[in-house]
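Step 1: inspect the first sequence and its C-alpha cells.
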Amino acid sequence: MLGVPYFMGEPMPFLGQIGDVDLLEPDLGPGTPQQRMAVLYRALADTVARDPGRPVIAGDCVSAIGVLAGLQRRDVDPTLYFFDAHGDFHTWETTPSRFIGGMPLAMITGRGEQTIVDGAGLRPLSDDRVVLVDARDLDPGEPVGDSGVEVLGVGEVAESAPRRGPLHVHVDVDVVDPGDMPAVNYPAPGGPRLEAVAEALRRLASTGRVVAVSFSSWNPARRGAPRAAEATLRLVESAVG
C-alpha cells in the first residue's frame, strides 16, 4: 500500500499499525493548511499517475483529491464512490466548524475552497459522477440534498448494479458503525456493520473496473486503534478484490 501519514497537512504517525507500507512524505514547506495540503496532494497525484494500482491510505478524506488528479493525468475519468458517515460537502459559506476536513467532496465537485484542488491539478467532477454512500450524519445546512450527487446506503451499493466505466472507491473508515470500527475522530452510531461495508466493496471490486482505492484512516491515539487497523485491512482486501 501507499501511505500518506498526514492529517490536515500535519504528520500523523499511524501507519506502523498496519505493517509494510511505502510512505509518501514530501517536504510541505511553510504556509496555511490548504497550501501545505496542496503540496502534499500534488505529490500524491504525481505518484498515482505513475502507479495507480496500489491502495492509498491517508489521514484524511482530502487525499481523494490527489488520487483523482493522478488518475486524470492518465486520461482516466472515473465515477467516485465516496463512503463516509458524513457528507464532507461544506463550503466556507455553510460550515459551522470551519473544518477543512468537512469540505473535500464539495471541493471535488468544484464548490467552495479550491486551493487544494488547483494545487493538485484536479479537474472537478460533475455531480453526476459522484455517489455518496451512507452519509447518515449531515450537518444542518449541508447542501447535499440540493446537489446532483446520488446518495445511497451501503446495502443499496451491495445489491445494485454499479455505475458504468472506471470507478474510484474512497472509504472513510468512519462509515462503519463504531461498534466495529473504534478509534475514529467523528464516530457516527447507527451505521452498517463491518461485513456489510466489506460486501459493498466486494460488489464494486467484482466489476473489474475499480481503477483506484483510497482510505481515510482511524486515529492511532484513540482507544481501540489496533482493532481499527485490523478492520481497515479487511476493508482494503475487500476493495481490491
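Step 2: inspect the second sequence and its C-alpha cells, then contrast the two.
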Amino acid sequence: MADGPKLLKPPAEVVYAKELKMLEESDDGPRPPGWRMSPKAVRSFILGDKQRNIRRKFVAHASLVDRAMVALATNRGLMLVGEPGTAKSMLSELLAAAICGDSTLTIQGGAATTEDQIKYSWNYALLISEGPSKRSLVPAPLFRAMEQGKIVRFEEITRCPPEVQDSLLSILSDKVMAIGELEGEESMLFAHEGFNMIATANTRDRGVNEMSAALKRRLNFETVFPIPDFKTELALVKSQSSKMLEEAGVPMAPPEPVLEVLVRAFRELRTGESEDGATMDRLSSVMSTAEAVSVAFSMGVRSYYIRDGKCTGEDLVHCLAGAAVKDNLEDLKKLRRYIDQRAGKRSSAAWQEVYEARTILPE
C-alpha cells in the first residue's frame, strides 16, 4: 500500500499525525466530554507553537479559533461564514482532526443533496430479502458522527434545499435521530459524547437557500475574514504554493517579486482600492487568498513544463486570465484596465513585465 500512488489530498489527521500524537501525549489540560485533546492543545495545533516546533496552519486572530472551540464544547453547533476562499473548510477540517481525530465525516451541500446522503440509506438487496434491520441500514456521515461521538462537517449548507436543512433541527436540539423503519431500541439513535456539527457557507451563496431562523438559533455564527496584512498574505501564498509545487514534482516556485505583484493585484482588485488610495473596478470573480495560491501554483507548473523554468509577469497575466478570472468577459476587461492604469506606473521589473503582457487581455 505504501508503494502505491500518492493521495492527492490526505486528510489533516494523516498529514499532521506526528503533531497530533505528540500534542495528545503531552496534553494535561481539561478536555470537554468526548474530545481527544484539550482546547489549549487544539489551539496550539491550529495556530502553531514555536516551542514545540508546531507550525501555524490557519491565519486568523486567535479569538476566532477560541470562540469556535467554545461553540463546539457546548450543545450548539458551529457555523463558519465568509467570502469564498477564506479557508473556512480548512479551519473546519483542522478542528475536526484535532478534536475527534477524524475529519472525513463530511457532507457536501448542493441542490441535489438529500436526507439519505446526510442521515442513512438502505442496502436494497438486504432490505428486500430480510426487511428493514440494522444490518441493511447504510449509515451516512451524520449517522456515523452521532454513533461514534465525532464531529460531522457540513460544507456549503445553504446550497441545500430548505427542507433538507430543517431535517437537522431535532438532531441539533435533542441529539437524537429517529429511524422510522426500525422498531424497538433501534428506532432511535442517540448521539454519543463528542458529537457536534461544523457547517460552512460563503457569503456569496448565503441567499441561495436562506437558513430558517430555527436552524440559525441552533448554531453559533463566526465570520472568517480575508487576511488583512499584505506581508502575512504574501508569506502564506508563497509557502502554500511552494508546498503544492513540491508535492506535484515541480522543483521550483515563482520568484518572490512576481508573487508580490500577484498578491498586491489580488488585494487591490478584491477591495477596489489601490495601496495609494485610488479607487478602481472590483472584479465579480473571487479574488481570495486561496485563489491567489492557485494562480501561483499554475505559474509554477507553466514555467516548469512550458517555459523552461522561466517565470515572469507574462506568466502571471496568462494564469490570471485562466485561473482567477472565469467566464466573465467584463472581468477580463476590468483586469486589462487595472493593468493599464496601475502596472505601467510601477517601476519594478515584475510590474513592467505584467504591463508589457497586457495585450493578452481584451480591451
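Step 3: confirm your contrast with the notes below.
The CA atoms of residues 268 and 277 lie 10 Å apart. The chain has a mean pLDDT of 91.
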